[in-house]
Task: inverse folding
């Protein structure tokens, strides 16, 4: 019989006994990979599927344009604000436990969304979904790291995890459109329930995760949430009720005060959520600014297109969802090309090129009308997918090279949080601009063009800053 770890027979001559305390490498666990991939998929699908279901939600719950903005931004803001400390939470409680709690909360919040009797309850449930998604994202990667000790097999597992996210983003609009049209918008959220149950069942078959001491910056986390929430409220409600209204001014004051408090807390905390010294590195600053602008342009446009297809062109939800498939194909392809192109011409060139193409894409969409041929709409969207997908992988690599190894997790969390914040604020601004008149319940093509101008202008600014700040950097 083969000798096991509990075999007490003496070792064969010429061999050395391995102490029982020696850690045994964990076997590769496809169950953990499947659980991680499903979790990443479900939180990704939720983002894009809900965008297509917005008109149906509006017809059912009568929330108005500001209500629709909050349905999107409640999720994104909590996702962005909590992601910066969610990694530390996963370390403290163990990846499997944190992932299980995150999936359980996301599943229950999805049920709350599906049963929501009004727009207020739906927004509250979306807040809970976003908080859960912030825990799921880093814990899913940590679970893969735990399940695969071999670097080569781990790299393949992470590649599958990444591809799963891209496929989910592509499938989200189509799935959301089909469900919203044929089963009702509540089905978009009900779909998460069986997926969540499957994930929890898979987690029961995975090995427990070790816990590691990781300090939590609760004061920094609280002030970050307050700052982002106050800013989003001011932008969303200011566009509908006036920038000088009392609630908007109060929200602006809260945002400003919380931002100042956040900086003060981070400066004094022994283990800050965002080490302020890291922001002085020009490559970090470029990555954050360009990532913010790219996400603002892309997710603002996704929000606009979902409404444009259905309200300006009269498409069904299914037809609107299918219109996103070519864009997703372009994004997936460009994501694969970006690293190889960066090796040939350098990251600086790829980052500048990606932002410039994305800025031109915003300009190319300005002539869109309710009568623009559909083939032309799809053609004009190609630069949108190409520009962002070229820039973001190179930006991520630039950021990882700019920080020491022990700061990689912090930098990654900050980068993704800033990108999500860009998307949330873009939805806030775009919704205010496309609202028709003072009622705030219509869709204005003129407002859509103003949103495209704003996104294009921001990208022109970050493109110029990237070219200038990296002019002396040898970015391979």
Result:
């Amino acid at each position: 019989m083969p000798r096991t770890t509990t075999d007490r027979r003496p070792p064969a001559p010429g061999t050395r006994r391995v102490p029982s305390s020696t850690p045994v490498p964990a076997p590769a666990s496809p169950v953990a990979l499947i659980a991680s991939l499903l979790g990443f998929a479900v939180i990704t699908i939720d983002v894009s599927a809900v965008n297509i279901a917005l008109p149906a939600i509006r017809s059912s719950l009568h929330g108005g344009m500001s209500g629709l903005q909050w349905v999107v931004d409640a999720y994104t803001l909590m996702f962005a604000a909590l992601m910066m400390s969610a990694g530390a939470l996963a370390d403290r409680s163990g990846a499997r436990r944190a992932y299980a709690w995150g999936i359980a909360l996301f599943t229950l919040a999805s049920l709350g969304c599906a049963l929501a009797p009004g727009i207020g309850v739906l927004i509250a449930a979306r807040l809970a979904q976003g908080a859960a998604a912030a825990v799921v994202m880093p814990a899913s990667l940590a679970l893969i790291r735990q399940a695969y000790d071999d670097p080569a097999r781990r790299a393949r597992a992470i590649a599958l995890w990444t591809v799963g996210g891209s496929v989910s983003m592509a499938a989200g609009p189509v799935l959301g459109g089909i469900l919203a049209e044929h089963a009702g918008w509540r089905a978009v959220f009900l779909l998460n329930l069986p997926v969540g149950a499957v994930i929890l069942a898979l987690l029961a078959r995975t090995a427990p995760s070790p816990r590691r001491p990781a300090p939590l910056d609760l004061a920094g986390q609280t002030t970050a949430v307050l700052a982002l929430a106050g800013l989003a409220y001011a932008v969303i409600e200011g566009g509908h009720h006036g920038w000088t209204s009392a609630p908007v001014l109060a929200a602006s004051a809260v945002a400003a005060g919380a931002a100042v408090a956040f900086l003060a807390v981070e400066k004094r905390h022994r283990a800050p959520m965002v080490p302020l010294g890291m922001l002085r590195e020009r490559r970090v600053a470029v990555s954050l600014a360009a990532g913010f602008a790219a996400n603002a342009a892309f997710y603002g446009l996704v929000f606009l297109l979902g409404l444009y297809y259905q309200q300006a062109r009269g498409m069904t939800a299914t037809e609107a969802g299918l219109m996103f498939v070519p864009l997703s194909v372009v994004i997936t392809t460009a994501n694969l090309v970006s690293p190889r192109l960066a090796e040939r011409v350098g990251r600086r060139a790829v980052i500048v090129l990606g932002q410039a193409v994305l800025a031109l894409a915003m300009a190319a969409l300005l002539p869109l009308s309710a009568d623009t041929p559909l083939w032309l709409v799809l053609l004009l969207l190609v630069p949108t997918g190409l520009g962002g997908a070229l820039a973001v992988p190179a930006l991520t690599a630039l950021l990882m090279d700019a920080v020491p190894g022990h700061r990689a997790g912090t930098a990654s969390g900050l980068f993704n949080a800033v990108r999500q914040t860009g998307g949330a604020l873009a939805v806030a601004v775009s919704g205010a601009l496309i609202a028709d008149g003072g009622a705030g319940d219509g869709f204005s093509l003129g407002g859509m063009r103003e949103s495209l101008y704003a996104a294009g202008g921001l990208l022109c600014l970050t493109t110029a800053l990237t070219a200038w700040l990296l002019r002396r950097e040898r970015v391979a």
Summary: Residues 1-26 have pLDDT under 50 and may be disordered. Residues 30-61 form the longest helix (32 residues). The CA atoms of residues 174 and 321 lie 4 Å apart.
